[in-house]
């Protein structure tokens, strides 16, 4: 794998850490030019050997730095890609980093906003409230008296992350080229991660999300969204209203205040389904640290860097899946998965059918209060990994969000069950489905699409007939490992050619040696000996060629 020499030092750091935690096989597979063979491959310590694979991955990611920590956090939502033990370890990743100098933060603020800290705030706490991988947060008070949180991005973090993203892309391409049978699309994962991370590097994106959430809950008495002060917010600075409340994670304090935890958990469920079904736009990281309780009847969300988007068509398909599951109609579930392009052509349909049928019957008669959405989703995603079912990343994000919501709900209210989520799901789905205005709009859109199809059909037919007339019809055959087949045929023909040449030289030299005239002419003797020597060289090359070919197949 060729490397960009501007990133050579970073490649060396990555190789050292991978070897340290027992992932030297990745280094060998990547064959990082100029790096891999200059670093001795050593055995990991006994402490590391005793770690689980998930813990090794987590510890390595923590040492690799902010980019990889963010990657790990995003991958912790992808239960469709990774086993549960690895997901559990990645979920422990936190942005616990050393804070940088506040004077540097003030310089960044002045450069971004164009004003000194003292001109914007009457009070600014120099001690960071929190330090994360991308930036750190401070408490402050505006000149107009409002208490705010000021997030300021770390110096040079964008260059560091972009450099790491370039390395990740190179590694993903190299691994994919090395083993084309890898089922997971590594390049697509890195591209999705790059999109997510570059958005988090732009605080304007988080500000826009917060403003949108504030608009969604503008008339709600149950959910409060902090105000964004756009005049002081830029790509690297975010000024947001400070929320004074109790973190949802502090359940002891919530109960000591006499607040009804069941009511609070119900508000959380209602607020999530309002986001999903009414707007198709939801907070994708609703863990207890990102939710404040302002009172018995009000909660508040913070941290809008990670959001999910789901369209109406996908929601309709998910609802059809739910109905098919209730009716134990496995064939209908498989048909819908095909409609979603989630199944590839090589999938074992009969095996998938049997496993889905087992899953339905297993949970069908379990009392609803004993059912855990987390357990169900973990089982479903295990099937998805087994049968290589590909689902959109936003659906995986939605599933992770619902699982997080259930976990939070159970902490607040031990009696919280899947029925609480199910009731709200049915309520929001059918209220929106049979809303007269929505029915009218859906009918209008369907009619417009039908009219458009009718209008474009003659034009499409003319185009097809014109291409047939001009003999411009092309048949495209997808690549089904033809490159691998071509390489193996080339190797085989090369080996056969070398074998024929070797045999010819050996036979010719043997005939010369057996000739009665050999003793009378030294040149004939030398020619025979040279033939045997060349045969030895060709034979050696042939053996090397065979071993290299076998190694490449592994």
Automatic annotation (TrEMBL):
Belongs to the protein kinase superfamily. ADCK protein kinase family. Residues 123-426 form the Protein kinase domain. The keyword Nucleotide-binding does not apply. The gene is ubiB_8. The chain crosses the membrane at residues 496-516, 522-544. It holds the Pfam family ABC1. GO terms for molecular function: ATP binding; protein kinase activity. CDD domains: ABC1_ADCK3-like. This is Protein kinase domain-containing protein. The keyword Heme does not apply. SUPFAM superfamilies: Protein kinase-like (PK-like). InterPro entries: ABC1_dom, Kinase-like_dom_sf, Prot_kinase_dom, UbiB_kinase. Keywords: Membrane, Transferase, Transmembrane, Transmembrane helix.
């Amino acid at each position: 794998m060729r490397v960009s020499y501007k990133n050579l030092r970073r490649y060396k750091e990555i190789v050292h850490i991978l070897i340290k935690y027992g992932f030297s096989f990745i280094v060998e597979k990547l064959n990082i030019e100029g790096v891999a063979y200059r670093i001795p491959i050593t055995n990991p310590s006994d402490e590391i050997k005793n770690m689980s694979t998930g813990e090794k991955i987590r510890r390595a990611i923590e040492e690799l730095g902010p980019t990889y920590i963010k990657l790990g956090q995003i991958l912790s939502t992808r239960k469709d890609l990774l086993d549960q033990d690895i997901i559990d370890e990645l979920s422990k990743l936190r942005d616990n980093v050393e804070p940088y100098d506040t004077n540097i933060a003030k310089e960044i603020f002045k450069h971004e906003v164009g004003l000194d800290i003292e001109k914007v705030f009457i009070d600014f706490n120099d001690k960071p409230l929190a330090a994360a991988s991308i930036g750190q947060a401070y408490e402050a008070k505006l000149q107009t008296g409002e208490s705010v949180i000021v997030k300021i991005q770390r110096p040079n973090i964008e260059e560091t992350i972009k450099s790491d993203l370039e390395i990740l892309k190179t590694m993903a391409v190299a691994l994919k080229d090395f083993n084309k049978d890898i089922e997971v699309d590594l390049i697509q994962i890195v591209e999705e991660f790059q999109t997510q991370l570059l958005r988090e590097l732009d605080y304007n994106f988080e500000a826009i999300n917060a403003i949108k959430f504030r608009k969604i809950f503008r008339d709600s008495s149950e959910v409060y969204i902090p105000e964004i002060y756009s005049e002081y917010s830029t790509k690297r600075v975010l000024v947001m209203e400070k929320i004074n409340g109790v973190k949802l994670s502090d359940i002891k304090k919530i109960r000591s205040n006499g607040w009804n935890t069941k009511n609070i958990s119900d508000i959380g469920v209602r607020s999530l389904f309002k986001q999903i079904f009414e707007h198709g736009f939801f907070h994708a990281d609703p863990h207890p640290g990102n939710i404040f309780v302002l009172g018995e009847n009000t909660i508040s969300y913070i941290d809008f860097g990670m959001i999910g988007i789901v369209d109406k068509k996908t929601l309709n398909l998910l609802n059809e899946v739910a109905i098919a599951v209730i009716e134990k109609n496995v064939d209908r579930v498989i048909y819908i998965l095909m409609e979603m392009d989630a199944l590839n052509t090589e999938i074992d349909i009969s095996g998938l059918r049997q496993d889905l049928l087992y899953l339905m019957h297993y949970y069908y008669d379990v009392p609803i209060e004993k059912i855990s959405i987390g357990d169900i989703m973990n089982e479903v995603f295990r099937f998805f990994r087994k049968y290589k079912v590909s689902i959109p990343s936003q659906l995986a994000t939605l599933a992770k969000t619902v699982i997080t919501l259930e976990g939070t709900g159970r902490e607040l209210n031990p009696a919280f069950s899947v029925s609480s989520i199910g009731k709200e799901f049915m309520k929001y789905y059918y209220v929106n489905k049979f809303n007269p205005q929505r029915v009218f709009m859906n009918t209008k859109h369907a009619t417009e699409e039908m009219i458009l199809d009718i209008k474009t059909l003659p034009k499409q037919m003319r185009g097809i007939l014109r291409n047939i007339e001009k003999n411009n019809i092309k048949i495209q055959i997808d690549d089904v490992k033809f490159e691998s087949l071509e390489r193996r045929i080339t190797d085989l023909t090369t080996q056969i050619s070398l074998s024929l040449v070797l045999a010819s030289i050996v036979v010719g030299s043997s005939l010369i040696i057996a000739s009665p005239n050999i003793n009378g002419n030294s040149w004939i003797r030398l020619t025979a000996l040279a033939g045997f020597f060349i045969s030895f060289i060709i034979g050696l090359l042939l053996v090397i060629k065979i071993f290299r070919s076998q190694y490449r197949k592994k």
